Amino acid sequence: MPVMNQPRYYLLGLLVLLLSGSISESKAQDPRFSQYFASPWNLNPAMTGVFNGRWRVTANYRDQWSSFLAPVPFRTYSAAADVRLGVSRNDYLALGLGLMHDEAGTARYQQNKGQLGGAFIKQLSGGPRQADHFLSAGAQVGFGQNSIDWSKLWFSRQFDPLTETPDLNAGNGEPNAGAGTDLYLDFNAGLLWYVLFGDQGFWYAGGALHHINQPVISLVENNEEQLYSRWSAHTGGLFPFNENFGLLPGVLVMRQGPAFETDLGLNVRYSNNDRNELALRLGAWARLGNKLDSGLQMDAVAVVAMLELERWMLGISYDVTVSTLTRANNSRGAFELSLTYFHPEERRAKVVCPRF
To answer: Can the peptide bond before residue 166 be classed as cis, meaning omega within 30 degrees of 0?
Structure first.
């Protein structure tokens, strides 16, 4: 067996299966962000173009379980850019591009994805003294490829009993060593409805289906390992208390194969409402997931702080583990950063989008 650090839940099954060759079929799952509301490209294709401004750039970084997997923790990098184009007075066409890189464990199991996407945003109703209702439909198409660094692994056949150390120059005898996935095609689609109450906040609800075609991601020959389709539903909004304070609750529900997860929480937002707007968000988000056949359990609580400064929004969060994994990591979970830039319209335009 190879020597490696303990992998993530989706990686453990994958690497054990491909290296042992004991089971003919398995399926893998996606990386995720605790600040899901700051990663709209990965949350729902219909959120493409749903922002105030001409174009937007987002970047996300997640570092997980450094407390006991250093120097090779699990890391996820994501970047996306989208632009919104007016096609009528209050209807829009949006286009975007997104990239993701995820790596895990000593063997550097990697997932790389690149996607093009688009959405059409249609105003359903609204007018003077009325709430504005919008519906967005979006889709993404792209390519992905997965791999591991076989040079980082050694196997029992390479163990030298005389020196009691592995001989990395000896052959490992593994028939699939060096294998990686072919470039695979990937499809995602989603819907989003939102309503704007003028200066009184907003509410939204949406759903998405990722990996509609369930692409084959086998790392070994003659294997049909597929990526599970992932469905998600999410809702949230902004409820102002007064000119300065407001609440931003949210709920996200996801299922991918046997894995089920729910994220729910609340950010409190303070704004100075000046011309050069400065706003601060503080909140806490709970994550629940299924534990095999034992039902739901609380996995972690993410503490979030976000700073909004005119065109920029910076988010920092930390996941505090509350499950039985605390025995291994002493409650030290994952660290996340998010950064978003909104480029303003060339001319003053009516506000038509929430700021998630």
So the answer is: no
